[in-house]
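Researcher: I'd like a structural prediction for the single chain below. Treat it as a standalone chain; there are no partners to consider.
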Amino acid sequence: MGRYLGSVCKLCRRVNEKLFLKGERCDIKCTLDKRKKKAGGKTSRFPSKQSEYGKRLREKQKTRFSAFLNETQFHNYYKQAKKMAGSPGPNLLYLLETRLDNVVRRMGFAQSIIGARQLVSHGNIKVNNRNLRVPAYRVRIGDKIVLNDKLKENAALKRWFGNYTKAPTWLTVNKENFSGEVVSLPTRQDISYPVDETLIVELYSR
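Model: Treating it as a single chain, here is the predicted structure.
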């Protein structure tokens, strides 16, 4: 998904669920809501009854689209999760949650994973006082993350960041300095991906 250039709304329609890839715009102007209104409550043209394989595939695709990764990247994360101690499902979500682009999003510097990845890849994020352009960087306890000074006066970002209240407990955020710190590692309850990871494990175990 790193090279996906199509409409992100199509990704939401594929899994028939809001993935908030456009941030707050998904609450205000969502194609799924429009389709639901026109179709009398139905948002999918496919039968509501899915096969067991279809359920597992949908859960994997939902997770992959939410992280905005391509199939190879996502599968590599799963293989890495299998090598770690513990269950591969929670390990997979942990690896996705601690990516730098996701942490930037969860701190409120960006409305969506796409915006957060753009901030990182354009060199607008500093980690421990050095510019880091690697969205896949895995954060560690004690990492200090700061927004580039030139963006601190951006009116849209200031409005969004000022009203943002969803930062998780494993991160601290300083709204005055546009900075944050990783104070602990996320638990399963802290994961921002609303998915059933056991279905992903079952899919890849076939």
